[in-house]
Every structure is written in C-alpha cells, then in structure tokens.
Design a protein that fits this description.
It is a single chain. Strand 11 and strand 12 form a beta hairpin. The strands form three sheets. Strands 9-10-11-12-13-14-15 form a seven-stranded mixed beta sheet, covered by helices on one side. Strands 1-2-3-4-7-8 form a six-stranded mixed beta sheet. Strands 5-6 form a two-stranded antiparallel sheet. The mean pLDDT is about 95. It has a single domain, classed as Metallo-beta-lactamase, Chain A. With about 280 residues, it is α/β, with parallel strands linked by helices. It is about 25% helix and about 35% strand.
C-alpha cells in the first residue's frame, strides 16, 4: 500500500517580483501575501513516498553548508529541520532507501549531504540518489545567471559516493512513480507523477512553485527559459484539468495541495487542501 507523508526541510523567502516575474504586484499581492519589504514566505516541503520496504524521499532541502549571513539573506533558520521532521513522523535517516531530486539547485538537494566537523557525509547512508542525466550535465556547464544555484562541492561529493544514479529516459522509475522531464526552469527538471489511492499526485517542484503561480502567464523569474516554461506549463495544466491530477506544492507556504479546472480564462485554481484530507 502506498503512503505519502509531507516532510518539512524548513522555510525560506524570496522577493515577490522574483516569484511572479512580469506580473504586477497589484495583482499577485492579492493572492499571495507579501511584507513591507516585498518579501514572500516560501517553504521547503519534501514528500516521503512509502510502499513496502521502499521509502523514497523527494527533495532534501538545503542542509548545513551555508554561513549564517547566507541563511539570513534567504530567510532560512539554521537547524536540522529535515531530520527532525522525519523523526516526528516516525522515520530515521537510515530508513530512507531512495532520494529523488527534481533538479540540483541548492534548495532542492544539498540537504542530502551534511557537514560534520568540516567533512561531508551522506545524510541518508542507505539510500540511492536519483537525478536526471540532463540536469547533472547541465549543472556543470550552466551560465552565470544560474551558476550560483549549484553547490558544486556537494554535487561532486554525491557523484563520487557512487550513489547518484542518472536517469536518461522518461517513464516508470519506481512502481507507481512515473517521471517526466521539463526544461523551462532548468534543463532536465524531473517531475514525479505518483499513483496512490486511485489518484495521481504530481510533485510540483519549480514547475509551478505555488498555487498562486497556476495562471499560465504567472511564471517565476527563476525560469531559465521562460518561453519553454510557458509552453510546458500550458500543456501540463491542460492534462491536469482533464485527468484531475492533484498538485503537491514544494514551495507554497500556505497551500499544500490543489486541483485545477478549465474556465473561460483557461485553466484556473479549483480547490486548495491538505494531503491528509485525501489519504
């Protein structure tokens, strides 16, 4: 039986203009809160997928690699948030069999490695790690605009551990877990489609970072190729509306899950709810 459990890796924040790009603040501030410094609160919401003996952790947050000033600038409170959340839900880091990265930006994967007395260790010693091959190769050649999002020392440590598996093809990666590649945010972003309780849950990562980003043109400025992101998003949302998928948000501080529907204005938000309401 499939079990899905949200796991917190802490919170962070970003500039509202970065989160909504060219959309005017007078519009987006009506649907996503912002403070007087134009800062929006975001979260690092991982997902534990458990079926039988397999325990797949999707994303790992940021870990403990960054100086206090860097954490402060990004609205991150230092601490072992990921491990604490796992323990709170009855799991240890030793229990995890697989760690799944949608992509290799620092806020999605560097928590898979921890710094202990200035030496790196795998946070999940028994786990295989999974990234798309396209994203791995891109992380080594990315341009100056995106380069700061990659922590090359951590990525090299993961690869040299022999535990990092590079996925080349779309399709079923694990039982009941299908992956697809999306290139607009960053080449080879690998999105999992999870079949559970006769429903399909899609882990959004940065494909659609918050429920407020559901409208087609409401892209984040972090997308490396916005026109590609727009085309991918339109096709994806049409499928979501048709097949009634459930969107699970990694970064939305206020909304865990949502559904969408077709309207005269295109695909729009239908309903917000928590995962536990469905399982």
């Amino acid at each position: 039986m499939m079990k899905l459990t949200p796991i917190s890796a802490g919170h962070f924040h970003c500039d509202g203009g970065a989160l909504f790009s060219v959309i005017p603040k007078v519009l987006w501030s009506k649907v996503y809160p912002v403070n007087d410094k134009n800062i929006t609160q975001l979260t690092l919401r991982c997902l534990l997928v458990e079926q039988g003996d397999q325990k797949i952790l999707i994303e790992t947050g940021v870990g403990n690699h960054y100086p206090d000033r860097y954490l402060q600038n990004n609205g991150i409170e230092a601490g072992n948030h990921l491990e604490e959340s796992l323990l709170k839900n009855g799991y240890s880091t030793d229990d995890i069999t697989d760690v799944f990265f949608t992509h290799l930006h620092w806020d999605h994967c560097t928590g898979a490695v921890k710094n202990v007395d200035n030496k790196m260790q795998l946070t999940f010693p028994n786990a295989e790690m999974w990234s798309s091959k396209t994203q791995w190769e891109h992380s080594k050649i990315s341009n100056a605009r995106e380069k700061a999002a990659y922590h090359s020392d951590v990525l090299s440590f993961m690869f040299n551990s022999g535990k990092l598996n590079l996925v080349e093809n779309e399709g079923e990666l694990f039982p009941n877990v299908e992956v697809r590649f999306f290139d607009g945010h960053t080449p080879g972003q690998m999105i999992p489609f999870i079949r559970a309780k006769e429903k399909t849950f899609v882990y959004m990562s940065d494909l659609i970072p918050t429920a407020a980003n559901i409208p087609l043109l409401w892209l984040a400025s972090y997308d490396l190729f916005p026109v590609t992101a727009l085309e991918e998003k339109e096709k994806f949302l049409n499928e979501v509306a048709e097949k009634e998928y459930i969107l699970f948000f990694e970064h939305d501080y206020y909304t865990e899950c949502a559904t969408v529907q077709n309207s005269e204005k295109g695909v729009v938000l239908k309903e917000k709810f928590e995962l536990k309401e469905l399982l």
